[in-house]
Amino acid sequence: MSFFSLPHFPAIDNVVEHRKRDYQIAVFTFVTTTICLTMDGFAPQFMQYVLAFFGWLFLIAWLRGECKYVRTQVAVAVTFAVIGEYFASVYMKGYIYRFGNVPAYVPAGHGLVYLTAVALGRSGLFQQHARRIAVFVVSVCGIWAFWGVSAWSQRPDIIGAVLFVVFLGYLFKGRSPMVYLGAFFITSWLEIVGTSAGTWAWAAIDPASHLPQGNPPSGVAAWYCLVDAVAIAGAGPVLQVFTKTALVLQRQRA
Fold it and tell me: pTM for the whole thing?
């Protein structure tokens, strides 16, 4: 099987369903992400807690309409992403938020971002035009990565080029390419908005590899794809544990 056979992409003649909910989730997250990250670029720190309150409120509201499996995926994604935030930002300082912390709204934000990637990936638009969208994403991200390592870039971005290659691996070899395509759009957007607003900034030199990176790196979606992959792989085992635990407790009460 060749690298570009796309075994996990939808069939070309796939019958699709356009559900309003999927597009509503995407539009909601793109709009609120823009507002939230722009506001946090200049607002006092206490505003992060206000944003966190509404973030959790909206995330819980959206999850009410999802199945148990997707809810578990979101829970795993949030847990893994928050651990990653403290390690990569607070400890390693690969990127630093404006107040040097991990903002209170970040956990709920990761939940909404993951849910949006899922919603976009399963939407009729993405299912029907999966290959065209993949070509567009690879082209845009490839040009972005090339620009970062070219003489035209004001800030060298070797890490971005490396992450672009990693992203290609997720997209063409991973079992959930539609989620990764959705993740590219929402995560690239939030990174551009967040760094432009000054909400956070990526270190000029990656502390782990000591290679230069952009602000944000061009292939930054690869980091979020890692979160998505862990959420997809971890949801099943987590559900099994909770199901077995519930059965044991039920038997003990009987």
Answer: 0.94
Maximum alpha-carbon separation in the chain: 72
Encoded tokens for 78: 């949030």
Name the β-bridge partners of 74. Answer: none
* Nearest residue to 29 (alpha-carbon basis) of 155, 190, 167: 190
Q: What is the DSSP string of 5-68?
A: S-TTSPPTT------HHHHHHHHHHHHHHHHHHHHHTTS-TTHHHHHHHHHHHHHHHHHTTS-H
Contact present, 221 and 156 (Cβ < 8 Å)? no
Q: 225 CB contacts (<8 Å, ≥6 apart)?
A: 166, 167, 170, 174, 180, 183
> With contact defined as beta carbons under 8 Å apart, do 221 and 187 qualify?
yes
Q: How far apart are CA 4 and CA 231, in angstroms?
A: 25
Distance separating alpha carbons of residues 14 and 82, to the nearest angstrom: 36
Tokens 């505003």 sit on residue: 47
In tens, the pLDDT along 89-116 reads: 999 999 999 999 999 999 999 999 999 9
Nearest CA to 94 out of 180, 231, 217 is that of 217
Residue 186: count other Cβ atoms within 10 Å of its Cβ. 23
Alpha-carbon distances, residue 40 vs 54, 58, 143, 200, 221 (angstroms): 14, 18, 30, 9, 22
| Amino acid symbol at 239 | L
Tens digits of residue pLDDT in 180-193? 999 999 999 999 99
